[in-house]
Amino acid sequence: MDKIIINGRTIGEGMPAYIIAEMSANHAGSIAHAREIIHAAKEAGADCVKIQTYTADTMTIDSDKSYFQIEDGTWKGENLYHLYERAYTPWEWQEELKEEAEKIGLDFFSTPFDKTSVDFLESIHVGFYKIASFELIDIPLIRYVASKGKPMVISTGMGTLEEIREAVEAVRETGNEQIALLRCASAYPAISDNMNLAAMKELKEIFHVPVGLSDHSMGSVGAVAAVAMGGSMIEKHFCLDRHIENPDSGFSMEPAEFAAMVRDVRAAEKAVGKVCFGATESEKSNLSFRRSVFVVKDIRAGEMLTDQNIRVIRPADGLAPKYYDEVLGKTASRDLERGTPLQMDMIQ
After folding, report:
1. Model pTM?
2. Is the dihedral of CA 253, 254, 256, 258 positive or negative?
């Protein structure tokens, strides 16, 4: 289906883009920061705040073997288990954060990473789910989330078309058709050159679902371009201040930046507009500056109209230019003064 419904709001083509502020680890271990992020996201124009539901033990195992060491990128030198220990959002906070968001009119949802996190989120009545790019290939998890019958937003970073197809089919096999797909460059931070937003449009055409962008780049370019190309959903990491150190701060937007992005996205939506032709209301007054056929030299009754005494000039009070060749060689039915807009009843 080309549209999905989240908390009574329709998301899809022709509707305002749904803008998600991803909290992730930006709470930096403080529930007070988490609450502040929720309020700041609302003020910055987000429609929704998203968290992640996992523990270090549900993500990986505590091991010093080389497999569990991160060798490049933003988290180079980290051990996976210890990274997730620092980054996770305590489960005992999450119902309280959901209530805080809903109290101020902000939607709230989460990315689960295993069945236990799905069960927990069901217990606090989360209304929809996100599948992270790295879990795109976890078909058992996707099937389990889909079985809850709630809308699912699936990031497709790194995914081949076949992997994306398998994920979509796993959802649809449960009877759940409420799917949105997000194009995502799974680098932290991402760069615009790797976004390949043309692939976002392709996903829409292939799977007939709303599409959007999960954007890890800095700035608004990707979000604005995605919306201009038909994206219906934008997700950006959101923090109070990049100086509050945490695993996600380096590629997250501060409130003023996020607010500027929202304004740019809304402006882009207005610029895209709808298919229409002819003068808009704001253009109608300028129709007078179009060209038309005018008398540019005094003409006596019975005198021939030539390229010396009539011309196509501004403004638009005379005959439309398309009639110019037709009236050349005809004669004036009366005296015509220079500066007169030519009309058919002036011609014999």
Report:
1. 0.85
2. positive
